[in-house]
């Protein structure tokens, strides 16, 4: 993932700076480290926990909307205690390998147009992250694009 080497902010405390940072982080994801001009860490561990909880809340609205304030606080504490096992970016596991068995006589289907562009972009991200590896097989598990409330698409893969 590409991040700018430096983003000059001077001493301005304008709301537009925050909006630009949010827009940039939305586009490229959160960097592992943010530095001030002096080169010292800008974002405390507490802030990372808060951002992680906010991200988890966004991802799991149905779960967190049913939590009582005390339960939400307990969840924040749990995330804070186990920050080392959470990641905003998807990763790869070596714990299990998966093989997709194909039934004889089943035909390959293809995708074209705009959905294909979305699929190719997501596959490219997963290849770059090492989550998946290239295959020369014509077969793959079915991909379904599910519309999200914000108008973007969720990439779903049916591994049956």
TrEMBL record:
Molecular function GO labels: nucleic acid binding
Residues spanning the membrane: none
A biological process term (GO) from this entry: DNA metabolic process
The name this protein goes by in its record: Integrase catalytic domain-containing protein
């Amino acid at each position: 993932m590409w991040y700018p080497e430096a983003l000059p902010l001077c001493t301005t405390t304008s709301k537009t700076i925050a909006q630009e940072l949010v827009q940039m982080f939305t586009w490229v994801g959160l960097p592992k480290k943010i530095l001030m001009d002096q080169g010292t860490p800008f974002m405390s561990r507490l802030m990372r926990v808060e951002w992680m909880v906010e991200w988890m809340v966004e991802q799991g609205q149905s779960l967190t909307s049913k939590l009582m304030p005390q339960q939400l606080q307990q969840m924040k504490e749990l995330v804070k205690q186990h920050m080392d096992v959470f990641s905003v970016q998807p990763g790869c596991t070596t714990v299990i390998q998966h093989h997709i068995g194909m039934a004889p006589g089943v035909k390959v289907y293809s995708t074209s147009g705009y959905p294909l562009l979305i699929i190719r972009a997501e596959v490219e991200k997963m290849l770059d992250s090492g989550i998946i590896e290239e295959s020369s097989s014509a077969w793959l598990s079915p991909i379904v694009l599910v519309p999200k409330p914000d108008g973007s698409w969720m990439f779903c893969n049916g591994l049956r």
